[in-house]
């Protein structure tokens, strides 16, 4: 049975093609039950890599069933056919992704950036409070609903963090993500704190929001890494950014993992808070670091933002009130070692994930232990 017939039997009228990868594609569809358009991810398990099926896929399914936040895409239904095809029904981001939005309209005004960044940060806090890390935060994975609100998507590299007896989170040894958004410790291929990695990526995203360009040129990873480790951040003068905005970015793009901000500190930062009073352009933060940085990177104002991840194929719209109960059932099945059921964002190509001559981001020096069970707290909604 073809995809249209399969979806029709489940109450969906298939629409246009939204994207396609090597073993997955995304179609739009109208849900006769929900009464609005959705995105349907169709995965061919026969074509998917073994690492993905055995490792990333079960993690993602477990996490998708847990998530319930207004700034995270909703998953409505997951089902699989006897021929090995998996269908995931999700929100449809009718306004596309943030990267395309900025490429089309240019840098955001700080007030608009503040609103969107607060939504994203609230979603990340919600995840981090559950000990869930995303590990692939980038503008392509931030979808926009009809009102241009942020919807965090693509949990294909996400995981639940284990805690040691001391209560500390264990380090991650799986090196994944996109080089342009990756923290220095990840680029260096050393074990890293995954929550702290997410914070660096948030800093890159906010820079792109307000500057309309990338903070670092990833065409030369070795050079980029040297600049990052020197804690150099160049802000285009023509953007006239407030001192507090630059201060926040500078402190998120902190190469020292012990001094990089945590998500609570980001949400409490004066720039993120409404009606915040601007800091002087050269104001120093509490660590004595100035947000005024040398103009040594030479980032031009009109820098073209290219997609550093070649396989973003998602779109969504408004959420239904609750996740379909089938999601939880599939998640439970995915926890079995021999079962690899479904994943939300699967069209990741090896070239997307390669850092510094690593053949694939899903290569790990050691498989992390199975994630510990944890109960989901009530939803914490962003603004």
UniProtKB/TrEMBL annotation:
Residues 304-319 have a biased composition (Basic and acidic residues). Keywords: ATP-binding, Developmental protein, Differentiation, Kinase, Magnesium, Metal-binding, Nucleotide-binding, Phosphoprotein, Serine/threonine-protein kinase, Spermatogenesis, Transferase, Ubl conjugation. Residues 278-319, 347-383 are annotated as: Disordered. The keyword Aminoacyl-tRNA synthetase does not apply. It catalyses: L-seryl-[protein] + ATP = O-phospho-L-seryl-[protein] + ADP + H(+); L-threonyl-[protein] + ATP = O-phospho-L-threonyl-[protein] + ADP + H(+). PANTHER family: MAP/MICROTUBULE AFFINITY-REGULATING KINASE, TESTIS-SPECIFIC SERINE_THREONINE-PROTEIN KINASE 1. Residues 12-272 form the Protein kinase domain. Pfam families: Pkinase. Its cofactor is Mg(2+). This is non-specific serine/threonine protein kinase. One of its GO terms (molecular function) is kinase activity. Residues 372-383 have a biased composition (Polar residues). Its EC number is 2.7.11.1. The lineage of its organism: Eukaryota, Metazoa, Chordata, Craniata, Vertebrata. It comes from the Eukaryota. ATP binds at residue 41. It comes from Echinops telfairi (Lesser hedgehog tenrec). The gene is TSSK1B. Belongs to the protein kinase superfamily. CAMK Ser/Thr protein kinase family.
């Amino acid at each position: 049975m073809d995809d249209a017939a399969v979806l029709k039997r489940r109450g969906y009228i298939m629409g246009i093609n939204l994207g396609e990868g090597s073993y997955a594609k995304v179609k739009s569809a109208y849900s006769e039950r929900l009464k609005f358009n959705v995105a349907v991810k169709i995965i061919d398990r026969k074509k998917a890599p073994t690492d993905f099926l055995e490792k990333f896929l079960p993690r993602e399914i477990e996490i998708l069933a847990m998530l319930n936040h207004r700034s995270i895409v909703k998953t409505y239904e997951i089902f699989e056919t006897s021929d090995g095809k998996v269908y995931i029904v999700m929100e449809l981001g009718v306004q596309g992704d943030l990267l395309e939005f900025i490429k089309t309209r240019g840098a955001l005004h700080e007030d608009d950036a503040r609103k969107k960044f607060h939504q994203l940060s609230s979603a990340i806090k919600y995840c981090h409070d559950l000990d869930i890390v995303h590990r692939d935060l980038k503008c392509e994975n931030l979808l926009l609903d009809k009102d241009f609100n942020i919807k965090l998507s693509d949990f294909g590299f996400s995981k639940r963090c284990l805690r040691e007896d001391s209560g500390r989170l264990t380090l991650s040894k799986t090196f994944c993500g996109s080089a342009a958004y990756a923290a220095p410790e990840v680029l260096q291929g050393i074990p890293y704190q995954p929550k702290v990695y997410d914070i660096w990526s948030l800093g890159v995203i906010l820079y792109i929001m307000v500057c309309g360009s990338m903070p670092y040129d990833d065409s030369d990873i070795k050079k980029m890494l040297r600049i990052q480790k020197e804690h150099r951040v160049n802000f285009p003068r023509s953007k006239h950014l407030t001192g507090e905005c630059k201060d926040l970015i500078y402190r998120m793009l902190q190469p020292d993992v012990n001094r990089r901000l945590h998500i609570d500190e980001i949400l409490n930062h004066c720039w993120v808070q409404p009606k915040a009073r601007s800091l002087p352009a050269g104001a120093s933060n509490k660590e004595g670091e100035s947000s005024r940085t040398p103009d040594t990177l030479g980032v031009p104002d009109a820098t073209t933002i290219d997609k550093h991840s070649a396989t973003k194929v998602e779109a969504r719209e408004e959420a239904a009130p609750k996740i379909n109960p089938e999601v939880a059932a599939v998640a439970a099945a995915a926890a079995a070692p021999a079962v690899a059921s479904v994943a939300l964002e699967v069209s990741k190509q090896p070239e997307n994930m390669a850092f510094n001559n690593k053949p694939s981001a899903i290569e790990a020096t050691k498989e992390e232990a199975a994630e510990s069970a944890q109960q989901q707290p009530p939803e914490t909604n962003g603004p």
